[in-house]
Design goal:
By secondary structure, the chain is of the alpha/beta class. The protein has five helices and seven strands, in the order H-E-E-E-H-E-H-E-H-E-E-H.
Length: 182
């Protein structure tokens, strides 16, 4: 083999080695960032389970009491038409699946008087509590980047976020979540 051909081969191998090292370094950096984001999410979830909200009757609703079973958490408001439209679906989901350990909680990003009026006129079988306008920040911390409503989060039995849905729920969404194995 000529000296020139050997130089080309060495340069080729050197290029491959440099590219491989760069790829491994990038993969390592991506893995590290994913781990950091996972830890941050774990802190958000841990913080969520420590919170409590007032129900419309004034009683405290402690989120820690829901940990250990699947939880569908829905952020809604009386002034949000898609929120109001999906509440009967959520109520049906709860009534059908509570025997299968599913829990549903509605957190109203609203004020007491309109929520109380709504629930009196359209009773719900699942607990409803007031998050107030601070509920927008809570929903953002759980993955609602736009802060819009409705927003739904599904927590697994381990307390970790399993699914999120921005916008109005459909029967298909609920059927898919019913089939989840936790």
């Amino acid at each position: 083999m000529s000296a020139r051909a050997a130089g080309v081969t060495r340069r080729g191998w050197l290029g491959v080695a440099v590219a491989t090292a760069a790829a491994l370094g990038g993969a390592g950096l991506a893995w590290r960032r994913a781990q950091q984001q996972s830890k941050a999410l774990s802190q958000v979830e841990a913080s969520f389970w420590q919170q409590q909200f007032l129900q419309i009757d004034g009683a405290a609703l402690e989120m820690a009491g829901f940990k250990g079973r699947p939880l569908l958490l829905n952020f809604w408001a009386t002034w949000c038409p898609p929120c109001i439209e999906e509440l009967p679906l959520l109520n049906g989901f709860f009534e059908k699946n509570q025997a299968n350990s599913w829990q549903v909680v509605g957190l109203a990003v609203d004020q007491l008087v309109p929520v109380k009026r709504f629930v009196t006129q359209s009773p719900l079988s699942f607990p409803v509590a007031l998050a107030g306008f601070a509920g927008v920040d809570l929903s953002r911390s759980l993955g609602n980047l736009s802060g819009g409503l409705p927003f739904t989060v599904v927590f697994g039995v381990d307390g970790a976020v399993a699914h999120r849905k921005m916008g109005k729920l459909t029967a298909d969404d609920l059927h898919a979540w019913e089939r989840l194995k936790f």
